[in-house]
């Protein structure tokens, strides 16, 4: 029995866990970014209420990270279909690594957006610079997302 | 690359996993879906509530408006309940010979992953909404025009719980157990 054991029955475990990692870690990053910059916006808004609407930019960017995680999680979980196409252990591990790549990139991007957003909104002249940093964070996540879809 | 060729070369994770009943994974998934979501909601309510009550000492007008932040946190717990109920309706009994069939293993893993997704996404969503809700209460106490603006940020935060629910439900559609032999 041991010579013909292939782990392919358990491959969906790793695949689904990859989808889970993609969404959960991206949501963690998005939550951190939203909460940290939101606190910054609120404390700045007490002094300068007219600048609050302009300072929502980092919050929106952090929210987009959650959407990236959602996209990858859906792509992975609909790709696990042993009836349509045989699902080997290789595919399971590939999906796990894609999901982890996207999720952890999203987590770090979200933390970056949060810390920069919190510090940046307190100075109104820095809003555009926050924009640039937020965009570079999202690009790291986008690169992970694109490489995930190649697997 | 089928993985079935070498003697003793196949993954030892798989050897261990294939012995665990899919019902174990399903049950843990359902428990995590509701348990961790409620943890997130409670954590968020505690963060918001303590700031709200403290700020209301000096500015009692903020209490009724800011209960909306508490309601946003509670919504996260309701998402967890809904998904846990959906997941437990996906459980079917299969005859003993089929419990370790590949299809039922896959169904067990799908329910597990779905539960993990919903639970932890709601946990971080509840935390996020709680932190923003507390700063919303504090800034509202200073300047009441800020309430609606900070509430916009809170709405962005609560979308994260919805993402978890969406993916959880999509994934639970994959949980198809083998059909009973006639």
UniProtKB/TrEMBL annotation, chain A:
What the entry lists under InterPro entries is as follows: ATPase_proteolipid_c-like_dom, ATPase_proteolipid_csu, ATPase_proteolipid_su_C_euk, F/V-ATP_Csub_sf
Q: Which UniProt keywords apply?
A: Hydrogen ion transport, Ion transport, Membrane, Transmembrane, Transmembrane helix, Transport, Vacuole
What does the UniProt entry say about where the protein is found?
Answer: Vacuole membrane
Q: Does the keyword Transport apply?
A: yes
Tell me if S-adenosyl-L-methionine is a UniProt keyword of this record: no
Record's Gene Ontology CC terms? proton-transporting V-type ATPase, V0 domain; vacuolar membrane
Any single GO molecular-function term of the entry would be:
proton-transporting ATPase activity, rotational mechanism
Predominant localisation class: membrane
Q: Which residues cross the membrane?
A: 12-35, 56-80, 92-116
Bilayer topology reads: Multi-pass membrane protein
Task: Indicate the segments forming the V-ATPase proteolipid subunit C-like domain, all copies.
Answer: 17-76
What is the role of the protein in this entry? Proton-conducting pore forming subunit of the membrane integral V0 complex of vacuolar ATPase. V-ATPase is responsible for acidifying a variety of intracellular compartments in eukaryotic cells.
Q: Which family does it belong to?
A: Belongs to the V-ATPase proteolipid subunit family.
Q: Which PANTHER family does the UniProt entry name for this protein?
A: V-TYPE PROTON ATPASE PROTEOLIPID SUBUNIT
Q: Give the multimer and partner information.
A: V-ATPase is a heteromultimeric enzyme composed of a peripheral catalytic V1 complex attached to an integral membrane V0 proton pore complex.
What protein name does the entry list? V-type proton ATPase proteolipid subunit
Origin species, per record, is Citrus sinensis
From which lineage does this chain's organism come? Eukaryota, Viridiplantae, Streptophyta, Embryophyta, Tracheophyta
UniProtKB/TrEMBL annotation, chain B:
Q: Which residues form the V-ATPase proteolipid subunit C-like domain?
A: 28-87, 112-171
Q: Which residues form a coiled coil?
A: none
What InterPro entries does the record point to? Answer: ATPase_proteolipid_c-like_dom, ATPase_proteolipid_csu, F/V-ATP_Csub_sf
Q: Name one GO molecular function term.
A: proton-transporting ATPase activity, rotational mechanism
Principal location listed in the UniProt entry: membrane
Q: How does the entry describe its membrane topology?
A: Multi-pass membrane protein
Any one Gene Ontology cellular component term annotated for this protein:
proton-transporting V-type ATPase, V0 domain
Subcellular localization: Membrane
Q: Identify the keywords attached in UniProt to this record, alphabetized.
A: Hydrogen ion transport, Ion transport, Membrane, Transmembrane, Transmembrane helix, Transport
Q: Where are the transmembrane segments?
A: 20-46, 67-87, 107-134, 146-171
Q: Which PANTHER family match?
A: V-TYPE PROTON ATPASE PROTEOLIPID SUBUNIT
According to its UniProt entry, the function of this protein is described as: Proton-conducting pore forming subunit of the membrane integral V0 complex of vacuolar ATPase. V-ATPase is responsible for acidifying a variety of intracellular compartments in eukaryotic cells.
On assembly, the entry states:
V-ATPase is a heteromultimeric enzyme composed of a peripheral catalytic V1 complex attached to an integral membrane V0 proton pore complex.
The record's similarity note reads: Belongs to the V-ATPase proteolipid subunit family.
This chain belongs to which protein, by name?
V-ATPase proteolipid subunit C-like domain-containing protein
Instruction: Supply the source organism for this entry.
Output: Citrus unshiu
């Amino acid at each position: 029995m041991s010579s013909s054991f292939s782990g392919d029955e358990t491959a969906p475990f790793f695949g689904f866990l990859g989808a889970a990692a993609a969404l959960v870690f991206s949501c963690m990053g998005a939550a951190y970014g939203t909460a940290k910059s939101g606190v910054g916006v609120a404390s700045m808004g007490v002094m300068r209420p007219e600048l609050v609407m302009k300072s929502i930019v980092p919050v929106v960017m952090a929210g987009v990270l959650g959407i990236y995680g959602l996209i990858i999680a859906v792509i992975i979980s609909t790709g696990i279909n042993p009836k349509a196409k045989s699902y080997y252990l290789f595919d399971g591990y590939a999906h796990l690594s894609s999901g982890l790549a996207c999720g952890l990139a999203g987590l770090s991007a979200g933390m970056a957006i949060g810390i920069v957003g919190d510090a940046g909104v307190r100075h109104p002249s820095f809003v555009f610079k926050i924009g640039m940093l937020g965009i570079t964070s999202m690009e790291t996540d986008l690169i992970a997302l694109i490489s995930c879809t190649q697997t | 690359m089928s993985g079935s060729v070498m003697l003793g070369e196949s993954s030892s994770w798989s050897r261990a996993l294939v012995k665990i009943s899919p019902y174990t994974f399903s049950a843990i998934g359902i428990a995590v879906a509701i348990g961790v979501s409620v943890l997130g909601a409670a954590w968020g309510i505690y963060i918001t509530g303590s700031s709200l009550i403290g700020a209301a000492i000096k500015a009692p007008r903020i209490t009724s408006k800011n209960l909306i932040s508490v309601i946003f946190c509670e919504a996260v717990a309701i998402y967890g309940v809904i998904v846990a109920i959906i997941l437990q309706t996906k459980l079917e009994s299969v005859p003993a010979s089929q419990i370790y069939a590949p299809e039922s293993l896959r169904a067990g893993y799908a329910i597990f992953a779905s539960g993990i997704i919903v639970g932890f996404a709601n946990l971080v969503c509840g935390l996020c909404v709680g932190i923003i809700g507390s700063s919303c209460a504090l800034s509202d106490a200073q300047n009441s025009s800020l309430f609606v603006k900070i509430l916009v940020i809170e709405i962005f935060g609560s979308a994260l719980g919805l993402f978890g629910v969406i993916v959880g439900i999509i994934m639970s559609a994959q949980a198809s157990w083998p059909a009973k032999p006639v």
